[in-house]
Amino acid sequence: MKRNNYPTVNYIGNKEKVTDWIIDSLPISEGVVLDLFCGGCSVSYSLKEKGFTVIANDALYSNYVLAKAIIENSHDVIQISDYENIKIKDSDIEKKYELIKDIFGNKIYFDYEVRELAYLSLVAKKLNDYKNYMFLALLRRAMIRKIPYSRMNVKWEEIQKLRDEVYSYAKYGRYRHYHNIPFLEHIEKNMDEYNSSVFDNGHSCIAFNLDGLDCINKISNKIDLIYMDPPYPSTMNKYEDFYGAYDKLIDKKTKIKTDLTNKLTFLDNFKKIVKACIGKTTYIAISLNNKCYPGMEQLIDYINPYILNYEIKTREHVYKVTNKENKHSNYEILLICKMKEELMK
Predict the structure, then answer these.
(1) Residue range 212-260, pLDDT digits in tens
(2) What dihedral angle (degrees, nearest 10) is formed by the CA atoms of 283, 294, 150, 319?
(3) Spatial distance between the Cα atoms of 311 and 317, rounded to a whole number of angstroms
(4) How confident is the model over 26-53, as a mean pLDDT?
(5) pLDDT at 6 over 80
(6) Which of 97, 240, 316, 339 is the most exposed place for a label (fewest CB within 10 A)?
(7) pLDDT tens column, 75-95
(8) How far is CA 326 from CA 190, 261, 319, in A?
(9) Is the pLDDT of residue 4 over 90?
(10) Buried residues in 182-221 as b, exposed as e (16+ CB within 10 A)
(11) Residue 3: exposed, middle, or buried by beta-carbon count in 10 A (0-12, 13-18, 19+)?
(12) If we measure between CA atoms, which residue out of 12, 28, 10, 16 comes closest to residue 281?
């Protein structure tokens, strides 16, 4: 079984640096785990490496394609020969370009790049099964790599400024030429890394593209643990803004219905999710940090009616934003709860 081949995904909020600690802290060492908000899939991937049966879920399609490619997929890789001879009609490219130009053109990418995006999105449709998801995961990586700060809601004026390599070097001592190479060049440059991330852990892992609450309700057989790292209101949590344009490129709509980004509604909505876990899982494990809202005590108070007991584990963790360390003292928290079997009447 391959180990430590998690690919570079450029995902804000990724738990890659603390995944081993998270999984070693869990009350189970085998079984079925649902990663309810899988995001960049770092926790799902580490769970898969350590032999768990993994269910990876995310409401954003951009994250779902990654989960399909490196969590659910256990064998299929992609080569240049799989797509290099695919022919797309110029008229189809023009039609797709017209559909997406107002989303991307001179807003996220330069207009000439939008035509390449149109073409590549149509190429992806010609690929079957997991080769399709591998290509889409690589396209996702390429799209994020070409944007300063790795998110799609940066102002166009700032994007243009930082993609000017002369300005970038004068200001930051870096040319950042990778912002200006074609999408396809990024795809082919990262292909070996993504192919190397594919492995079979002997279990049937699966990916879902569902709202968090809908995903729990979909579970028919009781599972061992549900891991949750929700988009807390106090964090950089605008994931639909950061990556949602990708979903529009391939004609997908976000599946978010249970909003966890709003400070006024977070606790009530999160309480609904935890309540839905009764009878579906033995444990839940919740990641947060000491700067989060809500705080750990408030979170426990809200979910207390649905749990039998809980354990708190902590670890120091330095967060970095745009390569600068957060000067505040931060530590990661893992709240592990044993669920009630049923609600008391």
Answers:
(1) 999 999 999 999 999 999 999 877 788 888 999 999 999 998 888 999 9
(2) -90
(3) 19
(4) 97
(5) yes
(6) 316
(7) 999 999 999 999 999 999 999
(8) 29, 22, 6
(9) no
(10) ebbebbeebbeebbebbbebeeebbbbbbbbbebbeebee
(11) exposed
(12) 28
**Residues, the chain, total?**
345
The rounded distance, in Å, linking the Cα atoms of 231 and 132 is: 28
Residue 67: which of 80, 50, 54, 76 has the closest Cα?
Answer: 54
pLDDT given for residue 236 in this prediction: 76
3-state secondary structure the chain: CCCCCCCCCCCCCCCHHHHHHHHHHCCCCCCEEEECCCCCCHHHHHHHHCCCEEEEECCCHHHHHHHHHHHHCCCCCCCHHHCCCCCCCHHHHHHHHHHHHHHHECCCECHHHHHHHHHHHHHHHCCCHHHHHHHHHHHHHHHHHCCHHHCCCCCHHHHHHHHCHHHHHHHHCCCCHHHHCCHHHHHHHHHHHHHHCCCCCCCCCEEECCCHHHHHHHCCCCEEEEEECCCCCCCCCCHHHHHHHHHHHCCCCCCCCCCCCCCCCHHHHHHHHHHHCCCCEEEEEEEEECCCCCCHHHHHHHHHHHEEEEEEEEEECCCEECCEECCCCCEEEEEEEEECCCCCC
Tens of pLDDT, residue by residue over 128-155, are 999 999 999 999 999 999 999 999 999 9
